[in-house]
Amino acid sequence: MLYLLRHGDAEHETADDAARRLTPKGEAQARLAGAALAALGAKLDACLTSPKVRAAETARLACESLPGLEPEVAAELAAGAFDALALSSGRGDVLLVGHEPDFSEEIARLTGASAKLRKGGLAILEPSTLHALLRPKDLRLIAGSD
């Protein structure tokens, strides 16, 4: 199973796009995503994240609710097309944390589904099937947070 988590809400454009940090809203989105994954009983074997600060922060905060899971930087998730199957090969169930439009394009390539992940949104898929496309408010309900 693959879990694609788009980074949470981030600071507006700065001189260095890669250094943009999460806003307090983005931090809350990341924590809720992790709590929702835990509530769903996701058994993740690995977490791979873009090296961009906003994605790495999202991964770190989401993993707080997922015992034993530590984010690992994957340069392939920084920007542009990537191959989720190759990236996750041999790792079991994997959480990927990254960016749009890259994630939507990969979902379409793998499943044929047209999807757009909101900031802090999560897609759950197998190589040819999109099982769920969850918005931050969906994740909040799953996590049991008001």
In short:
By secondary structure, the protein is of the alpha/beta class. The protein has a single domain, classed as Phosphoglycerate mutase-like (Rossmann fold).
Give an overview in words.
The chain is an alpha/beta fold and 146 residues long. The protein has a single domain (2-143), classed as Phosphoglycerate mutase-like (Rossmann fold, 3-Layer(aba) Sandwich), CATH 3.40.50.1240. It contains five helices and six strands; from the N terminus they run E-H-E-H-E-H-E-H-E-E-H. Strand 5 (122-126) and strand 6 form a beta hairpin.
Helix and strand arrangement:
Layout (H helix, E strand, L loop, with lengths): L1 E5 L17 H16 L6 E4 L3 H11 L7 E3 L10 H5 L5 E5 L3 H10 L10 E5 L2 E6 L1 H8 L3
Helix pairs in contact: 1-2, 1-5
Largest sheet: 6 strands, mixed
Number of strands: 6
The residue-averaged pLDDT reads 96
Provide the structure class.
alpha/beta
Please name the CATH topology: Rossmann fold
Name the helicity range. 25-40%
Query: Any idea what the CATH architecture is?
Result: 3-Layer(aba) Sandwich
What is the CATH C level class, in words? Alpha Beta
Uncertain parts:
none
Output the CATH homologous superfamily. Phosphoglycerate mutase-like
Shape: globular
The total of helices stands at 5
How far apart the termini lie comes to 28 Å
| Succession of helices and strands | EHEHEHEHEEH
Strand order of the largest sheet: 3-2-4-1-5-6
Number of domains: 1
Q: Kindly estimate the percentage of residues that lie in beta strands according to DSSP.
A: 15-25%
Radius of gyration: 14 Å
